[in-house]
Design goal:
The protein has about 350 residues and is of the alpha/beta class. It is built from twelve helices and 13 strands. It has a single domain, classed as TIM Barrel (Alpha-Beta Barrel). It has an eight-stranded parallel barrel, surrounded by four helices.
């Protein structure tokens, strides 16, 4: 394990406004301060292959941290097996009014209502073009502008513009902070979206480019009917996987922090149970045939392992870093390796879905 400097800087960051602390962190990473934290080697048992990509470990940085693809290489250096940047929209947008990011310290949670604030596709793409090719996968999370009349067209434009510059795409239709966005999870709207984004990929492949995986990111606030519809689309189209899940608009009764009623999406520890339930159900609904990425509430290795057993081939986190710092990544990897060994699994892939009753 590497010596963890985060306890020394955490009081400074937590004395700042939450969004200012986030901006400061990104800026520090841009100038190379990631190297101060170091990383441990990846246990061999954590290496895995999902939708045609190889991951040195299954723990990824979720979208939302690196909104403009400015610190991809620095994020990889923290020890993640992959990273996802965005959400990026075709046109730059400021997002919602501040304040829009809140730490619920008593609950180890975060509420945000950013509203896809980002510098737009051109800035995002130019940053990717400057990157040196690496071996750690990177995903581009694409979204729609708030004022767009045809939000699906925005997703198509994102994929067309960034095609070949990332290793996979995530189509984010589940943020609660853009009006009308979650309506794209209805069967009719999602079917249309999937047809159009897959057609964009086919056009790129017909022009000689390689096939890029496309994933859909869904909300945790879904009905059984919603889940059945999404599973059906995932099983009957060429979509490569689902990310489960985004933030929740539901406020659990267990929340105690004074800021618990702020408008926006809730993430962090309180999201672990509901997001894992949805993950478990979607694994069953898809019969384990669709790769799933488990996100929401992971605070330690046991949480990550629970997601994997529920059906996740990979996991992502972000909010936990606010409270635990980058040293958490090494701790999760170490704990995962131990849990695999204790439960008789030689690899991550062997443990995926093990919480389900086998026929």
């Amino acid at each position: 394990m590497i010596f963890d400097l985060f306890p020394l800087v955490k009081p400074i960051l937590h004395n700042l406004d939450a969004e200012k602390a986030h901006t400061l962190t990104v800026n520090c990473m841009r100038v190379g301060m990631t190297g101060l934290f170091g990383q441990s080697p990846n246990p061999a048992s954590l290496k895995t292959e999902v939708f045609g990509l190889t991951f040195s470990n299954p723990v990824g940085m979720a979208a939302g941290f690196d909104k403009n693809a400015e610190v991809i290489a620095a994020t990889h250096k923290l020890g993640f097996g992959f990273a996802e940047a965005g959400t990026v929209t075709p046109l730059p947008q400021k997002g919602n009014e501040t304040p829009r990011l809140f730490r619920l310290k008593k609950d180890k949670a975060v509420i945000n209502r950013f509203g896809f604030n980002n510098k737009g596709l051109d800035y995002f793409a130019n940053g990717l073009k400057k990157l040196n090719p690496g071996t750690t996968p990177f995903g581009a999370n694409v979204g729609a502008n708030k004022q767009s009349d045809d939000k699906t067209a925005d997703y198509v434009k994102g994929i067309e513009t960034l095609y070949g510059l990332a290793d996979y795409f995530t189509v984010n239709i589940s943020s609660p902070n853009t009006p009308g966005l979650r309506a794209l999870q209805s069967k009719e709207a999602l079917s249309d979206l999937v047809i159009r984004v897959l057609a964009a990929r086919e056009r790129k492949m017909a022009a000689g480019q390689a096939r890029m995986p496309i994933l859909i990111k869904i909300a945790p606030d879904l009905t059984s009917s919603d889940m059945a519809d999404i599973a059906d689309i995932a099983l009957t189209t060429d979509i490569d996987g689902l990310i489960i899940s985004n933030t929740t608009i539901i406020r659990p009764a267990s929340l105690t922090d004074a800021q618990k009623n702020e408008t926006g999406g809730l993430s962090g520890a309180p999201l672990m149970a509901p997001s894992t339930r949805i993950l478990h159900k979607m694994y069953e609904a898809t019969g384990g045939k669709v790769p799933l990425i488990g996100v929401g509430g992971i605070m330690n290795g046991a949480d990550a392992y629970a997601k994997i057993c529920a059906g996740a081939s990979l996991v992502q986190l972000y909010s936990a870093l606010v409270y635990e710092g980058p040293g958490l990544i090494d701790r999760i990897k170490f704990d995962l390796a131990v849990l695999l060994q204790e439960n008789g699994y030689s690899s991550i892939s062997a443990a995926v879905g093990s919480a389900h009753t086998k026929p």
